[in-house]
Structure prediction request, 320 residues.
Amino acid sequence: MRHEPAVLRTRAALRSSLRDLAPGDLVLAAVSGGADSLALAAAAAFYCRKAGLRLGAVTVDHGLQPGSAGQAERAAEQCRELGLDPVVVRRVRVGGRGGPEAAARVARYAALDAVADELGAAVILLGHTLDDQAETVLLRLARGSGARSLAGMTAVSGRYRRPFLHLRRTDTQAACRAAGLPPWHDPHNDDPAYARVRVRRDLLRALEDALGPGAAEALARTASLLRDDADALDGWAGKALPDASTTNGLDIPVLTALPRAVRTRVLRAAAIAAGAPAGALSARHVSELERLVTDWHGQGCVSLPGGVSAERRYDRLVLR
Prediction:
């Protein structure tokens, strides 16, 4: 197993992701029992022992299918056999807001954050792969998302880290076989009721058939390029917002002089600062805000989520 290429790739990915941590720091791996998360746990166990890091695991039981509690405990036991400690199984209640996939994701991340807070973890590891990244880009593309959304998942987001974003799902499956770790296959991953399953099973396969191999890698590469662009534009907007801000609103001439990609980011940031919830603030809301700047014909207030309103007063845009 030591020389299995897939195992070496997973271990190298963990080393690159965790090299900034100090001995004694606690790392938590989010482990469902699937191939991606088991390969993550095995690679992390190898690296953390060598680096003097503490390694634990969190298994989230969503309670969405019969036998979920038993599967969660099985995954937890596999983690214990790998030497992870502490290992926490956390049962969550999944709501219905935003659809089953979104609701399960919200419940899962809330549980991971809660356990990390309780244990004082420095890092939470997630097993998302390049395949997951490609699927994410396609899903967001179909929703008409902008560059930030199409940039996909980031390798580092706060204390969350995704070491496997450049590895394929075949790598994690091969690593599990080499390590003698039988993964759990979630039946939801074959259920066409879920959009991500349809993208994985039908759309990505059709792209590969029509365009040749490498579609997933190309999508992930596109996400990386868009992330660089989005970071640059967000940085520009962060500097432009103070320049546009006055004691009685945002300066219209300053906003007008900005490129649209920067101006819309400034307007979105200003709306959030005024109290509009980021998750509820849509592209349509920002577009209506922009019309007050670039296409004003005396129209009245624009209503935003969170009870925020915006109106133009001469050469000022006022949000309250």
The CA atoms of residues 37 and 318 lie 48 Å apart. The first strand starts at residue 26 and ends at 30. The first helix runs from residue 5 to 18. The chain has two domains: 5-211, 247-319.
